[in-house]
Design brief:
Number of helices: 15
Structural class: mainly alpha
Helix content: over 70%
Shape: globular
Largest sheet: none
Strand content: under 5%
């Protein structure tokens, strides 16, 4: 299953390109289309992948949680919040400056200086379009993930359903996710609506179908006896189809075409052979994939400070696109260090402190990211 870790880095890097490569730099309409849609596609990868990994890491063959709900939620908090908090702290000076410079009086900026950070700290920002991207914009997806984590103990009941029912739910979820993705353009025209688009993009219940697709894929990966050669072939077909969808599919209908391709890709990458699996499970990509969460959370503040430094020095030797790749290389190195020296140590410390109450027998530690991957590899071998 290391290939699923490797693909996380590619998805995170594509989000960075989506946010910082200027669309105006692309003269080719195909490249412009790619830059517009690749961010949404990469976030869909994260949501579907989250369902797969959480199912395999935390659900028994009998369809029950391996630990208590409390242990599960502590493990999720320990996994995401330390780096998430670092992102909030790093973005704070930039966000405060932006709010103060954009609003002329205290009546306008004081509520924003209170509501925006509080909504981000509490992981509730995605529940309103006003706060969703107001404080470290990409972190809206973690607010959505928190909603998934809250529902996960209830959703694993899907595992007890027949496989035909699971497939019907997956197809219904695909149709619903596609309709949600198209809704802003149907309601407001091809240009969409910034306000409405944010709602349909970030409101947590509206992204739940993608997570459910991931859960059902997790069930199918566990229960489907498909030869490695067939899985590998599926991954190659999925890559070709996803590339075609990203380059040529209409922006407003992208999720309709991309979601089944993403599902097939992730399913196919669970093979133990094949050229694509081999590339994605190399040590370098697995290490970068493990650090991809830090890259995703920190890329906006890091690029913000990089731009400030370059502006203050009046030193921009690279063109706009080359500068983004320079920033991505710097961010990648920082994310690897953050994963090693903050993310994993803090996850272990929080689990150790919170997983058992004083006076109670200590239960087995909650599953963290590294343990989950090791356990998953052992079951699939």
């Amino acid at each position: 299953m290391e290939a699923l870790t490797g693909v996380r880095y590619i998805a995170a890097a594509l989000v960075v390109l989506h946010h910082f490569v200027p669309v105006s730099e692309a003269t080719d309409p195909i490249v412009r289309n790619f830059l517009k849609v690749v961010g949404d596609g990469s976030v869909s990868v994260f949501f579907v992948l989250s369902g797969i990994v959480l199912f395999h890491s935390n659900v028994t063959l009998q369809g029950r949680l391996k630990k208590t709900k409390r242990h599960f939620w502590i493990a999720r908090f320990a996994r995401i919040y330390p780096v998430y908090a670092l992102g909030i702290l790093l973005i704070a000076p930039l966000s405060v400056h932006q709010i103060l410079s954009s609003h002329p009086n205290a009546t306008n900026y004081l509520p924003r200086l209170i509501v925006y950070p509080l909504s981000a700290i509490s992981l509730l920002q995605s529940w309103t379009p006003w706060t969703a991207v107001a404080w470290n914009g990409p972190a809206w997806s973690l607010s959505v993930e928190a909603f998934f984590y809250a529902l996960f103990p209830l959703l694993i009941g899907i595992a007890s359903l027949s496989r035909r029912t699971c497939l019907a739910i997956a197809l219904s979820s695909w149709a619903l996710a596609s309709a949600i993705g198209m809704a802003p353009f149907v309601l407001w025209g091809d240009a969409g609506s910034v306000f409405g688009g944010i709602f349909f993009q970030a409101f947590p219940p509206l992204r739940l179908p993608e997570f459910i697709v991931g859960l059902i894929l997790g069930i199918l990966i566990r229960d489907t006896a498909l030869p490695d050669a067939a899985r590998s072939a599926l991954s190659l077909v999925a890559v070709a189809s996803l590339t075609a969808a990203t380059l040529f599919a209409p922006w407003w209908a992208y999720r309709f075409f991309s979601l089944p391709c993403i599902g097939l890709l992730l399913f196919g990458l669970t093979s133990s052979g094949g050229i694509l699996t081999w590339v994605l499970k190399t040590r370098v990509l697995v290490s970068l994939g493990a650090a991809s969460y830090s890259l995703y959370i920190l890329h906006v503040p890091v690029f913000g400070y990089l731009g400030l430094i370059q502006d203050s020095l009046s030193f921009r030797p690279l063109g706009p696109v080359a500068n983004v790749f320079f920033g991505l290389a710097l961010l990648t190195a920082l994310s690897v260090a953050c994963h090693r020296y903050l993310e994993m140590p803090m996850a272990g410390w929080i689990n150790g402190r919170l997983a058992s109450r004083p006076g109670q027998r200590r239960d087995a530690p909650a599953v963290d990211g590294a343990t989950a991957e090791a356990s998953l590899r052992a079951r699939m071998s």
